Fold this sequence. Notes:
The protein is of the alpha+beta class. The protein is 24% helix and 15% strand. The protein is built from 4 helices and 4 strands, in the order E-H-H-E-E-H-E-H. The protein has helices spanning 40-45, 50-60, 93-96, 114-125; strands at 32-37, 70-75, 87-91, 104-106. The protein has a 4-stranded mixed beta sheet. The longest helix is centred in the last third of the chain and has 12 residues, at 114-125. The chain starts with 31 loop residues before the first strand and ends in a 12-residue tail after the last helix. The model has no long low-confidence stretch (mean pLDDT 85).
Amino acid sequence: xxxxxxxxxxxxxxxxxxxxxxxxxxxxxxxxxxxxxxxxxxxxxxxxxxxxxxxxxxxxxxxxxxxxxxxxxxxxxxxxxxxxxxxxxxxxxxxxxxxxxxxxxxxxxxxxxxxxxxxxxxxxxxxxxxxxxxxxx
Length: 137
């Protein structure tokens, strides 16, 4: 049986819907959320299931739980198709206070290889300032 990132067994045919839903369980907090454009034009240049691949990478790096949790969220069109595929980084300032990488835009993320994503995720986990130009393709 398939499990979600929290280790809960999921409903057949779903990726994250738990079988046993606890409505009183608090929402899990994250340090960083990466919104990945999955709109029509961006999706057309992206490799299949990029969001799922990034979630697996985050899990393998141990950044899917705890204080440094990074969450990948698919979105529809950001309206920045000329830079397809794009991502926006949002830091949880309410939980973590000052965050040097809040509201960072990344362009052409469909060209990033695994090493590039690992570098980005480590920088986010360690609160290292990201310069958008360092991640331009």
